[in-house]
Amino acid sequence: MIRHRSVAGPRMACALVGLLVGGMGAAAPLQAEVRVAGPGDYRSKLQKLEPGDTLALESGDYRRGLDIHGLEGKPGKRIHIAGPADGRKAVFHGKPGRNVVSIVDSAYVTIRHLHIDGGGKAVDGVKAEGHARFAHHITLRHLVIENQAPNQQIVGISTKCPTWGWVIRDNVIRRAGTGLYLGDSDGRAPFVEGLIEHNLVVDSIGYNMEIKHQDGRPELDGMPEEPVNTTIRHNVFVKGENSADGDSARPNVLVGHFPPEGQGSKDRYAIYGNVFYRNPTEGLLQGEGSVALYDNLFVNPAGDGLAIMPHNGQPRRIWIFHNTVLAKDTGLFFKATDATSEQLVGTNAVFAETPFSGNFERNRENVTGSYGEAGSAFAAPFAGLGQLNLWPQGDRLSLQAPLPGMILWQLPDARRDFEGRRRSGQFAGAYAGSGEGPEWLPARAIKPEPTRLAPSQSERGEGGAR
């Protein structure tokens, strides 16, 4: 039985519990205490939560922040903090001098269905604080984070302490200085084994997302020791005319290197199924270290596509395949260095004024053309979001031979395309090209779950991202 306490009447409390549990699906605790709270009493109930408990927040305006301090659930008995799932809003407002949601020394906590409005104040939306020892197995879902943009340094979701096992899913971040900033600038607050999927990040001044480099791994109980992936999939990253320029210009996404030796040195980014759209002052993605980049759509009618190059470290193991790149200037710039031990660039469709640039090996079939020639290769390549259609037309993107299966088996979902179709190896680019066309056209919206894929790990449970 689920027990609940409430300052509201029993009918209202039961309705809130039903909405909350319905929104959790299989992840809802079977035996737990549900504490219903509102703006007046939520803080007193928050710190009483035990593993498996839920704090069900009523709709309303919350002006004293949300402190997730010293809350530790357990595997299978997470602590849940959730607003209504029926369209009403639990709105947390920014307040000078404190981050809206502050996380310190907490684990196995899920936060969902909250609306975070920074109000233009110089405070972050959700932050794992820098003085914390750890924050692991935190799940952020169905959050709307907005108005965090008085300057480029203000962040929607930020981690400044060692973190691992985070799931960031189904969130909307708009009008932030930086959308997500994961890790710290000195390389000593690693973001490890994260799963970032089905988010919409738009109109950031700086990065839509940056994951910082890692110079080493601290010795903490539970920190992954075996090689793991940080997975970035099925997100939509869009920048607009408010993008910073000059020395402050930033790509939509930047991923830094993992530790060059020791624990974590064999970790990898798996970045697939994403939409990277428009950046008037920089490129769409920059990366170093170990990166697998596949089945993505890169579209920049205002500049460059993607760059693999040194930032705080070196490109080491780089796989770039089955991407569609449409860029006004350079499609892919790749600066290989002496540290680059593996490189695969193949079966991409790249249409740009300069499709490829740099000192790397294009060692598999790629289909290239000028930016203007994209009109003969795709259904509607020059349309804006909502009508943009990069489905292959005719035989312009045909391949002579697919990638070897041994490469595709090493990476999650690499045998499928942008929408989850099984690949035959017939076409270059992000779409398999067989069938009637795409089910979803890229838009300023959360990308729906691919119908042809089995449920993602975060749908089966919320235990992390291996």
> Helix proportion of residues, in percent?
under 10%
User: Total strand count, please?
Assistant: 38
**Main beta sheet, described?**
21 strands, parallel
Distance between the termini: 32 Å
- Uncertain residue segments: 1-16, 21-30, 456-466
- Protein structure class: mainly beta
Structural notes for this entry:
- This protein is mainly beta and 466 residues long.
- 6% of the residues lie in helices and 35% in strands.
- The chain is built from four helices and 38 strands.
- It has a 21-stranded parallel β-sheet that branches.
- A hairpin with an 8-residue loop joins strand 37 (378-380) and strand 38.
- The longest helix is centred in the first third of the chain and has 15 residues, at 10-24.
